[in-house]
Amino acid sequence: MKPDFCVDLTPHRKLDFCSNKENKEKEVVFLEENGGERLINKCHSTISKEKIPKVGMEFDSEEEAYNFYNEYAKAIEFGIRRQNIHNDANGRIIDRTFCCACQGHRKKDKRDASVKSHRPETRTGCIAMMKINDRYTGKYKVINFIADHNDHDLVSPSKTHFLRSHRCITDVQALQADDISSSGIAPKAGYYLMSNKWVT
Known about the structure:
This is Protein FAR1-RELATED SEQUENCE 4. By secondary structure, the chain is an alpha+beta fold. It contains four helices and nine strands, in the order βαβββαβββββαα.
């Protein structure tokens, strides 16, 4: 006997992405810099020039450079991660590369034969990156910056905070969470309290 109804098993919790077609339809602006042409997405025109990485920019620390590139990535709507690093004999960071979270390719899963449902592919070989170097000056200097992404989708503005590099809380919020926990308030009630009153 066949059932007279159907059950919709389509997952409903899904991130909203900007389509590749929309990204490709965005105009591009060619800027001449240091005798060459650099491809810059028109989305750069939506943010201030001070927030766009440029070759020659200097930072006092590796952490400061990471935070700057992460803020830029949030404005452009993609996630980042730390990639290559080189240290001197004393362990001090000489150079570091920050890249798009979609950089590289996932290694082949050894469980391919037994896995029924694979996780979505998140590595697409994206080339967007920023590299800093501290070999010649006392500060970390941007020596390479690639703004162009490959064919992967960018996250919509309403979902950017779900990306790993953008999931963070401020020091004030962390202290508030500690106070709530030490007061014996249940986690669920604590989250509700912070979301309605204390989060700034």
